[in-house]
Write a structure and sequence with these properties.
This protein is an alpha/beta fold and 212 residues long. Helix content is 47%, strand content 14%. It contains seven helices and six strands; from the N terminus they run βαβαβαβαβαβαα. Strands 3-2-1-4-5-6 form a six-stranded parallel beta sheet, with helices on both faces. β5, α5 and β6 form a beta-alpha-beta unit. α3 packs parallel to α4. It is globular.
Length: 212
């Protein structure tokens, strides 16, 4: 059977992607745009976000670049309003933005611990809340990008691992509470994909060989 060009059913849908300026978020946003979705690129890196938006527009995509620190509740509300103003709906939210402050549980400063959890966990909840009215109206979906480190301890990333484990439970909690309202919530757990976020790990001699 020949596969439809719109086999994912994304053509014309509106998708919001956080952390879209680079790494996994940029690739997710790019693939959503290629599938025919209208994509809101959300990232605190405004320059990187606009750069990707320009590239996608040249390819014929409908995109919106929005600068936002997702750990700030007011900013998440502002970008959700901007999406509503632009397209009047949101069918999917990809919670992907993340940060890493390397350090064991004994070494990590409380300031770094709080900073990581503010983005990697609290930020996911703030975005989910901000986009909930549109997602509920569209019977839409939330995809939370967790990590394999949320399932298995990873050396020198105590705050990151704890935050990603929290994302897994948050995803289940959202499904339990919002599922009856028509919103699906799922999480994915990527491994150590080589991005700017994980680059520091690869600087360690022999790290790549050990991973392999």
């Amino acid at each position: 059977m020949e596969r439809s060009e719109d086999w994912l059913g994304l053509r014309g849908k509106v998708c919001a992607v956080t952390g879209a300026a680079s790494g996994i978020g940029a690739e997710v946003a790019t693939q959503l745009a290629k599938a025919g979705a209208k994509v809101a690129l959300i990232d605190r890196n405004a320059v990187g976000c606009e750069s990707l938006a320009d590239t996608l527009r040249q390819q014929g995509a409908q995109v919106l670049a929005l600068a936002c620190d997702i750990s700030d509740e007011a900013q998440t509300q502002t970008v959700a309003q901007a999406v509503a103003l632009q397209w009047g709906r949101c069918d999917a939210l990809v919670n992907n933005a993340g940060m890493l402050r390397p350090g064991s549980l004994e070494e990590v400063s409380i300031a770094d611990w709080n900073a990581v959890l503010a983005v990697n966990l609290t930020g996911y909840l703030l975005c989910a809340r901000a986009f909930k009215p549109m997602l509920q109206s569209a019977k839409g979906a939330i995809v939370n990008v967790a990590s394999i480190s949320g399932l298995f301890p990873q050396s020198r990333s105590g705050a990151y691992s704890a935050g990603k484990a929290g994302v897994l439970l948050l995803s289940r909690q959202l499904a339990a509470e919002w599922g009856p309202q028509g919103i699906r919530s799922n999480a994915i757990c990527p491994g150590m994909i080589r991005t700017a976020l994980s680059a520091k790990f690869y600087e360690e001699p022999g790290f790549e060989a050990k991973r392999a």
